[in-house]
C-alpha cells in the first residue's frame, strides 16, 4: 500500500469515527431530553406496569407506562411486607411465585429481583436517567414516597 493510499484510508477511518461519535452524542442528547420530559426509555416495563401501544385506550405512546393493576397490587404488597421488617426479599419472592406471578422476563422472582424492585424509583412515578438524574415521569406512581422510604430504610 502506498503512502497516499494509507493516508486516504486513515482519513476515511477518522471521518467514520467522527461521524459515529456525532451520532452517539445526538442519540444521548435525545434520550436525556426524553427522560427529562418524563418518558420511560427502557425496552421493558417494570413489573406492575405495561407500556402503551397503538390502539391502547390509555395511551398509544410506548414511552409512557400504564399501571397493570393485578401486578401493581402485588408490588404494593411487596413494599409493605418489606417495610414491616418481618419479610425478607427471599420470602417475598416465594410469595409472588406461589401466587403465580412471573417477572417481566418470564422467570420466577428471586431475592435479587425483589431487591431491585424495592429500590426502583419508577414505582414513585420517577424516571431515572443513567442512574444519576431523576425526573418526574409521565406515568402514575404505584406507591407513595413514605412507603418507598420505609422499605428503603430512609427516615
Domains, number: 1
CATH architecture: Alpha-Beta Complex
Separation of the first and last Cα atoms: 69 Å
Report the portion of residues in β strands.
5-15%
Give the CA-based shape. elongated
CATH topology: Hect, E3 ligase catalytic domain fold
Question: What is the structural class?
Answer: mainly alpha
Query: Strands across the major sheet, in which order?
Result: 1-2
The CATH fourth-level homologous superfamily: Putative Large Serine Recombinase, Chain B, Domain 2
Level-1 CATH class name: Alpha Beta
Please tally the β strands and state the result: 4
* DSSP helix fraction: 40-55%
Order of secondary-structure elements: HEEHHHEEH
> How many distinct helices?
5
Question: Main beta sheet: strand number and arrangement?
Answer: 2 strands, antiparallel
Q: Using the CA coordinates, give the radius of gyration.
A: 21 Å
Amino acid at each position: 500500500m502506498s503512502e497516499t493510499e494509507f493516508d486516504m484510508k486513515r482519513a476515511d477511518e477518522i471521518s467514520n469515527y467522527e461521524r459515529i461519535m456525532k451520532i452517539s452524542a445526538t442519540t444521548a442528547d435525545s434520550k436525556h431530553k426524553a427522560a427529562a420530559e418524563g418518558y420511560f426509555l427502557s425496552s421493558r416495563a417494570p413489573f406492575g406496569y405495561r407500556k402503551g401501544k397503538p390502539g391502547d385506550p390509555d395511551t398509544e405512546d410506548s414511552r409512557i407506562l400504564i399501571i397493570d393493576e393485578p401486578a401493581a397490587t402485588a408490588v404494593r404488597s411487596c413494599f409493605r411486607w418489606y417495610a414491616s421488617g418481618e419479610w425478607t426479599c427471599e420470602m417475598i419472592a416465594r410469595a409472588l411465585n406461589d401466587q403465580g406471578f412471573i417477572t417481566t422476563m418470564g422467570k420466577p422472582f428471586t431475592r435479587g429481583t425483589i431487591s431491585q424492585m424495592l429500590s426502583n424509583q419508577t414505582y414513585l412515578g420517577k424516571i431515572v436517567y443513567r442512574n444519576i438524574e431523576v425526573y418526574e415521569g409521565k406515568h402514575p406512581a404505584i406507591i407513595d414516597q413514605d412507603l418507598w422510604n420505609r422499605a428503603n430504610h430512609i427516615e
